[in-house]
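Section 5: illustrative case.
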């Protein structure tokens, strides 16, 4: 169980995270989604006690992370796969962590095999690893203490398609055995196949959360694409219709299709697509929710 309540982090006058609240239940994978710079990593660092919040709170297994005795036996964390000692071998890295956690050294060998690092790779120094190999080693470290919770920040970076499939299978199995997984990514398709619930953050704020069905059900409005997106945007604004970009030539509009069509026709804006916003699936909704305001996108 992970519980986040009104977490806020300010750096001077800049609010990196603002009033973020969500829950991750046992037996589920929660996809924490948002574009680069949205506040995902800052939120996860606050959950893990590495960054003190300006206000709000976070609890893992019912208590703040820093109050968990020997936390690696209860919570597996991977926040930065590159933050590993480059002079040690993969086997040495896991063996040392096993000693610190009080875990049988044999488990270190099992974890190396489970994440797909063969003996030859385990004998190599981490400084010679590819990013994908570092990610596998980082996941092995997260699993080493046989935790009940996994907190993983962008774990698919550097993995090839086979590696991404392997990771999804591993995380799905962990959750199906009753574990809790919080998985961040800026790429929706990485987590859509494995996540039970989604928390979408943009500009430091939660803009949506729920399972796929809930998110698509609540995504009202109209999706529209135009041959000349600038002319279409002007037409919508002149008609008093609130619109957000969700692609290079597309908008979601807080109005029905007839109102959007009439506004475009009045301005002579040629439409390429006009339909209910929920019909485009989760990816379109994600792009709509995380699109930057026009003045920030230039």
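Designed sequence:
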């Amino acid at each position: 169980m992970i519980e986040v309540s009104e977490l806020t982090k300010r750096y001077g006058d800049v609010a990196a995270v603002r009033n973020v609240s969500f829950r991750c239940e046992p037996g589920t994978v929660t996809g924490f989604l948002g574009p680069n710079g949205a506040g995902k990593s800052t939120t996860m660092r606050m959950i893990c006690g590495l960054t003190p919040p300006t206000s709000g709170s976070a609890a893992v297994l019912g208590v703040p992370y820093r109050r968990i005795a020997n936390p690696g036996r209860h919570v597996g964390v991977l926040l930065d796969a590159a933050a590993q000692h480059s002079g040690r071998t993969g086997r040495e890295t896991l063996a040392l962590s096993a000693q610190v956690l009080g875990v049988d050294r044999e488990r270190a060998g099992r974890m190396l095999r489970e994440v797909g690092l063969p003996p030859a790779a385990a004998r190599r120094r981490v400084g010679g690893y590819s990013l994908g190999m570092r990610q596998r080693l980082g996941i092995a470290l997260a699993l080493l203490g046989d935790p009940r919770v996994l907190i993983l920040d962008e774990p698919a970076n550097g993995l090839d398609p086979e590696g991404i499939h392997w990771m999804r299978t591993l995380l799905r199995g962990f959750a199906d055995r009753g574990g809790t997984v919080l998985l961040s990514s800026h790429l929706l398709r990485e987590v859509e196949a494995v996540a039970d619930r989604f928390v979408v953050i943009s500009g430091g704020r939660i803009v949506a959360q729920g399972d796929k069905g809930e998110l698509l059900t609540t995504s009202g409005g109209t999706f529209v694409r135009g041959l000349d997106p600038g002319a279409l945007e002007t037409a919508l604004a002149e008609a008093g219709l609130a619109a957000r970009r969700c692609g290079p030539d597309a908008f979601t509009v807080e109005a029905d299709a007839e109102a959007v069509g009439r506004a475009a026709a009045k301005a002579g804006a040629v439409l390429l697509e006009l339909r209910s916003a929920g019909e485009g699936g989760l990816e379109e909704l994600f792009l709509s929710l995380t699109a930057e305001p026009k003045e920030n996108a230039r």
